Amino acid sequence: MSKSIWSEARLSPGKVSDQKGGEHRTPFEQDYDRILFSTAVRRLSDKTQVFPLDSNDAVRTRLTHSHEVANLARSIGLRGIATDEDAFQGVDFWRVVLPVLGSSGLSHDLGNPPFGHQGEAAVCEWFADREKWIFDRTDNAADASGIPPVQAEYRNDFLKFDGNPQTLRLLTRLQTSHGKVGLDLSACTIAATMKYTVAASNTDKNDPSRKKAGYFHSEKEVVDWVRSETGLAEGQRHPIAWITEAADDTAYSVLDVEDSMKKGIISPDDLLTILKSDSALETAPAVVRMAEKFDIVDHLDRSPIVRRDIKIGYARSFLIEDLVVHATNEYLARKTQIWCYENQTALMDTSPLCEKLKQVAKQYAFGNSEVLFIEGRGRRAVYRLMDFLWEAITHRSDKEIHSSRKEAFSRYVFSLISSNYIEASQAENCSDGQASELRYRELRLLTDMVSGMTDQFALDLFDKVQSLK
Fold it and tell me: Which CATH number characterizes residue 296's domain?
């Protein structure tokens, strides 16, 4: 399948996936399994979706969110193929398309640092505060050692740090494997996981597929290989990525609101009132069905809490159904443009219901004082941990990163950095130009370590390390 967006080729040198030796899974089913059983997926259980470090088991983490996105992506694909047999150009839906949809959904948030967007903001802020010297050391006489500066086009990898390119790096570099190729996924699966498709130096806010960085320069060689195998060019998004994006929009617009209802911040009746008050939504199928079912539930001989939970279940079901139908219809209506790489608008951008639910989530979930407090605490912890990690990375006895540290504090903190991250920072594993230079590799190791932390680990480590200063 070379030169096809469904390419089975893997990163392992000279290796093409097949089903020899009695292997009953397709290469794409293998990809899904490799992602599912990875350490990175398990870490999502302690990463924030909306409510950080919540003790309520009913409230979502990044792990439950990612499984739900994978499920919704498959649902959109199933509805599409049931309506249009050529929805995926005749490719085997069950053995090829379905596992790729699952892989893309399950992996889409793997690169997010602790505390989500606040963690990303902390990383970007840390680099911005040190921009005058961090890339060339010119303003730090104690560290001036003739290390080549990071070129301007590479600096946005850090100043605009984002979880999306970190996901690609994690899948293709940081997960341990015999051939140093991460999970050794197929070119098709890697392409489908790339929501954005350009380097940080080539972003365009007016283009959905180029709005943010899709890869760091350290993974340019990987991206070049994916493009050589799939035929995709810079700025061209794999068709599956549009569906995954719609599934993600559906998940967090509905389910973040559901979490707010589970925590009692907003009631299902409040939500219904908000939706009915919008003239564009008062006759929407989901809103009409919610009103009908809520009226029936109100007359049940059940406790108020049980009636509330029943209503929450109805709301989730009806709202997801409406959004999945919208996503499917939009995908089928734009199928030609998507497969010709001419589509420019996210599938859910035309959904008034999705937009209204995002507004509700922003007000009642992300705007909740409890969330804002813990996010602020987490952001401060991430920022300060980067100080400690940077000291540990740079205070060493020799030029190379893996050499011994000078002081007990640096030795301790450096010992906490994962061995596979340190290995990935070695020059022989960074073949793309400036990405192999020492300063770039130091910075890459810093962001690898901090983005791999879970929420609770980051807070605990911050408290522990700070006590030594």
Answer: 1.10.3410.10
Residue 154 included in any domain: no
Closest-CA residue to 255 (of 317, 207, 193, 208): 317
Helix, strand, coil tally for the chain in percent (to 5): 65, 5, 35
Contacts of 329 (CB under 8 A, 6+ apart): none
Q: Is 211 left (phi over 0), alpha (psi -120 to 50) or beta?
A: alpha
Residue-by-residue DSSP string for 196-232: S-EEGGG--TTSGGGSSEEE-GGGHHHHHHHHHHH--
Residue 398 CA neighbour count, 13 Å, CB half: 5
Do 208 and 95 reside in the same domain of the chain?
Answer: yes
Nearest to 191 by CA among 214, 174, 216: 214
Q: pLDDT tens digits for 217-248?
A: 999 999 999 999 999 999 899 999 999 999 99
Quote the crossing angle between the two packed helices 239-262 and 304-333, to the nearest 10°: 170
What is the pTM for the complete model shown?
0.91
Whose CA is closest to 143, among 388, 399, 386, 384?
Answer: 399
pLDDT, one tens digit per residue, over 397-442 is 888 888 888 889 999 999 999 999 999 888 767 766 666 788 999 9
How many whole angstroms separate alpha carbon 386 and alpha carbon 5? 39
Say how far apart CA 77 and CA 97 lie, in whole Å. 8
Domain limit, last residue, from 327, 348, 367 = 367
Give pLDDT, residue 141: 44
Report residue 396: phi and psi, to 5°.
-130, 170
Domain check: are 210 and 350 in the same one?
A: no
